[in-house]
């Protein structure tokens, strides 16, 4: 089975690997296909379209076939159009779209990634038949910003020298290892080292045959209100590239997790490594659609069913979240519904073609919304149920195995599946989802709200007080003066009633729920605590936030351990005072005070002189040319300034920091810890002032 598909000068090369090494097979007879249907309510016909395409230079062959243009449709005639090259698919689709009146023709199977398209149309499974060899090459950003490269790391081993020596070192390692996969700190290494080889007249070759390709340029995108950056993507023949600056699944799940998803999605490793969660979920859905003879729409659009104003109001709600009981609580237990949203989909047969079906229009299945759900098995449960079952089996094997290597592999696979399951619910409400429908999104939320409210009532009836609940998780503590039904019994009964497993997750010695920064109300997703096995759990607080400097994060964790040992805010503030002394003496390593933020726009588009802007100015001056969506890391050295002198970048010689700025950040982190015991910022400031004054008087 090929693990890599290359398109070179219009010819397909499929690469396989085994104990004897890698080899390729040429497929010069492959022709990509797209499909078109005609609107029955217009004058457009497939015969007319066929006539329009007869003399199109990219069209090779056409034929009428029976396919379903959607899950709610029966089989009908569609026109299959074979084109001469992969790049012509969109060109022909655009040509078809412009024929006749707007909407007269619909195109299908258009916007597939190129390797995935080949595997889908030819039935090829790109899961490697044997273990893949890898080579990791890392280069610091300043080296890439100002080539030629004179320093890099290969598989953890550092090298430095002249540009020619570096090129020869990489080439020697490529020949020795003969890797199937290149794991690069940045795919920009491909053109950078290739250009350096050309300038130095060094014989250098990234792939197993000469040449390299740029598949896509860099771009900026918006996702759920956040700005992201997609680096340029490159290809070399015979080797899959994993760009560590542009990979979610490799970062979260490693190579084993990626390969597990390759087998499920039929998306080859290189494409899967840079794909989003939704992209991989869509690939899995496309495989299921093809099994049902359903085509994939190009420009996905699904009208929203008519709803009354009351239904619109009731439907426009998310999962239920209870306001947490702020404070420090002992003897706390956490229980979670296993994969709640995917299990709701599967248990209640929620799918775009089953929701609000015509055949059961008089039924009122969905609580609060009264949507009907068809009894015919939906495609979405068929997609998700194997993932749920497989993850359950993997978790069971993890609990039983004593083999550390096997456990690591299983955890990688479990993590990869988890991310697909996590996203499947939200993807139903995504406007560009190929097979999504907003009514599915609304129904899933409605069931989740009902389940959580019923669960709360059951626990309270059996002697347990709810401290907090977030969609699929609850935290309970015994009600004083009442007898308690064992939690395992309650979990079993609720699981049987709901049809979704409620699992006992953790016993906590204590849990602290944190108030909002400007209110005494509880913050919905900020808490910390200590499990009965001694492990600490942190959620939503500074030490879990990616922008928090490493030293601040570690100090907040130390304050939590102090709180655990002493149970008083005075003890935490005493520890804070010691940390402030260390900070103000200059003893903290500036590299441990780096702040990482993501640029949300181009430098010239910012209206205010923030610290991030100062960092972007310095980065631009240094030649890094940061783009929207990219991270920039810096140390604040003088926060009173508004210029680029306010900060220093992580790659500069860091020898100082703004003590007052980081002291404020440290005190804020302390307030989060002490707030559960009733001490807010003003009380912490008074403690510090009293003890500083006392120390001066004693002196």
UniProtKB/TrEMBL annotation:
Q: Which Pfam families match?
A: DNA_pol_B
Span of the secretion signal? none
Give the reactions, separated by semicolons, that this protein catalyses: DNA(n) + a 2'-deoxyribonucleoside 5'-triphosphate = DNA(n+1) + diphosphate
Domain DNA-directed DNA polymerase family B multifunctional: start-end pairs: 286-466
What EC number(s) does the entry state?
A: 2.7.7.7
Keywords attached to this Swiss-Prot or TrEMBL record, sorted alphabetically, are: DNA-binding, DNA-directed DNA polymerase, Nucleotidyltransferase, Transferase
NCBIfam families recorded for this chain? PRK05761.1-4 (NF004418)
Homology family: Belongs to the DNA polymerase type-B family.
- Name of the protein: DNA-directed DNA polymerase
Instruction: Record the organism.
Output: Saliphagus infecundisoli
């Amino acid at each position: 089975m090929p693990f890599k598909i290359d398109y070179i000068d219009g010819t397909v090369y499929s690469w396989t690997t085994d104990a004897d090494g890698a080899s390729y097979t040429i497929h010069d007879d492959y022709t990509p296909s797209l499909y078109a249907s005609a609107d029955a309510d217009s004058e457009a016909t497939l015969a007319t379209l066929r006539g329009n395409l007869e003399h199109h230079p990219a069209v090779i062959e056409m034929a009428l076939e029976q396919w379903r243009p959607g899950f709610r449709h029966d089989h009908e005639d569609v026109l299959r159009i074979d084109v001469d090259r992969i790049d012509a698919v969109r060109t022909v689709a655009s040509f078809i779209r412009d024929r006749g009146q707007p909407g007269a023709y619909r195109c299908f199977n258009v916007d597939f990634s190129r390797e995935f398209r080949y595997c889908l149309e030819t039935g090829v499974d790109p899961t490697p038949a044997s273990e893949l060899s890898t080579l990791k090459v890392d280069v610091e950003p300043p080296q890439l910003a100002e080539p030629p490269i004179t320093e890099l790391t290969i598989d953890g081993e550092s090298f430095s020298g002249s540009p020619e020596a570096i090129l020869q070192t990489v080439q020697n390692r490529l020949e020795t290892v003969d890797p199937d996969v290149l794991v690069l700190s940045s795919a920009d290494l491909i053109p950078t080292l290739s250009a350096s080889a050309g300038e130095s007249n060094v014989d250098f070759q990234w792939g197993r045959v000469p040449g390299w390709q740029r598949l896509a340029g860099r771009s900026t995108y918006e996702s759920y209100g956040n700005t992201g950056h997609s680096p340029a993507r490159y290809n070399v023949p015979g080797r899959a590239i994993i760009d560590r600056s542009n990979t979610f699944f490799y970062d979260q799940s490693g190579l084993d997790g990626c390969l597990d998803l390759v087998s499920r999605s039929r998306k080859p490793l290189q494409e899967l490594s840079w794909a989003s969660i939704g992209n991989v979920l869509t690939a899995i859905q496309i495989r299921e659609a093809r099994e049902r003879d359903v085509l994939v729409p190009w420009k996905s659009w699904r009208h929203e069913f008519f709803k009354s104003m009351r239904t619109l109001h009731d439907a426009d709600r998310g999962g239920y979240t209870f306001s947490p009981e702020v404070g420090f609580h002992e003897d706390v237990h956490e229980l979670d519904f296993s994969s709640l949203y995917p299990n709701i989909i599967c248990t209640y047969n929620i799918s775009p073609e089953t929701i609000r079906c015509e055949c059961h229009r008089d039924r009122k299945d969905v609580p609060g919304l009264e949507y009907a759900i068809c009894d015919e098995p939906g495609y979405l449960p068929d997609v998700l149920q194997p993932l749920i079952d497989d993850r359950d089996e993997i978790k069971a094997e993890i609990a039983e195995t004593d083999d550390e290597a096997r456990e690591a592999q299983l955890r990688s696979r479990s993590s990869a599946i988890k991310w697909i399951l996590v996203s499947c619910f939200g993807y139903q409400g995504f406007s560009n989802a190929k097979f999504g429908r907003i009514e599915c999104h609304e129904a899933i939320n409605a069931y989740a709200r009902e389940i959580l409210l019923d669960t709360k009532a059951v626990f309270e009836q059996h002697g347990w007080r709810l401290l907090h609940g977030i969609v699929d998780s609850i935290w309970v503590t015994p009600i004083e003066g009442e007898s308690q039904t064992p939690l395992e019994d309650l979990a079993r009964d609720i699981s049987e009633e709901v049809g979704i497993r409620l699992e006992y997750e953790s016993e906590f010695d204590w849990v602290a729920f944190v108030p909002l920064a400007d209110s005494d109300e509880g913050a919905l997703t900020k808490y910390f605590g200590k499990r009965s096995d001694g492990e600490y759990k942190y959620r939503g607080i500074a030490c879990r936030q990616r922008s928090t400097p490493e030293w601040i994060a570690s100090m907040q964790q130390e304050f939590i351990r102090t709180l655990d040992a002493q149970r008083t805010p005075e003890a935490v503030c005493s520890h804070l005072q010691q940390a402030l002394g260390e900070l103000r003496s200059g003893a903290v390593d500036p590299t441990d005070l780096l702040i990482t933020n993501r640029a949300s726009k181009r430098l010239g588009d910012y209206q205010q002189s923030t610290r991030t802007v100062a960092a972007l100015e310095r980065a631009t001056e240094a030649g890094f040319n940061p783009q929207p969506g990219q991270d920039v890391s810096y140390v604040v050295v003088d926060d009173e300034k508004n210029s680029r002198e306010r900060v220093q970048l992580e790659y500069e010689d860091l020898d100082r920091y703004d003590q007052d700025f980081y002291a404020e950040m440290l005190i804020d982190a302390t307030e989060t810890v002490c707030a559960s015991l009733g001490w807010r910022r003003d009380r912490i400031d008074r403690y510090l002032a009293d003890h500083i004054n006392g120390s001066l008087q004693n002196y």
